[in-house]
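FORM 7B: Structural annotation worksheet

SECTION A. Query
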Amino acid sequence: MSRWNRIEKGFMIAFLIWAAIGLLFTALKITPETIAHGALPGWLKSFVGLCLGWGDPVLILLAFANTHLHAARQWGVPLARRWGIIVLAAALLVETVGVATGFPFGSYVYTDRFGTLLGLVPFTIPLAWHVVVTNSLFLARLAAPLDARMLAALLTGLACALYDVVLEPFATQVKGYWYWSNDNIPPLQNYVAWFAVGFILAHLFAPRAVTLFRNDPRPALILGATVLIFLAGRV
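SECTION B. Predicted structure
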């Protein structure tokens, strides 16, 4: 953490605190219905209700901010900004096409429970793609040799697909962020598409700049904290 400036430290602390609150609420199965019938003061009910209503979009925004700050630290601001624009644009495009046509993920539809819709897609979805792909890329490059670009891209795609395996039950069955047409069960092609999109972005568009601080814990912390929340929601 000694390499992080005050802004980086502030955003990381905010993310960890918010993720801890989300993990607590998820593990205890706290919902608007439970607090409505609880013996909490009015102001506390309002605060908890606000957290429940906006908690997930805020968590993604904090995760995105930390992910971008980490990328800027590793690659420099111009490369991190260019990469971010590419991932956000690609994610919005592929998700919009996916909802409209069923390709490449399968037939599904988004609700507004994960944030305001940008056409057919919540604004948080491109941010979430950036978080998953970017942090998976950094972890993959940590595991692969510095010059093994193809291997790093393959590992990135695999990490993205595995992340979605953990995410899907939480997002569809617990939160209702989106619904699949086939009895709300994601098809195999969804995971193949996650792998393919992650691989293509990492292999064709990721900056070739060397990762400067390979022991920075942010990618593992960001992905690990969100995975814990997903798992807690499935218990």
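SECTION C. Observations
The chain has a mean pLDDT of 91. The first helix runs from residue 6 to 27.

SECTION D. Sign-off
Analyst initials: ____
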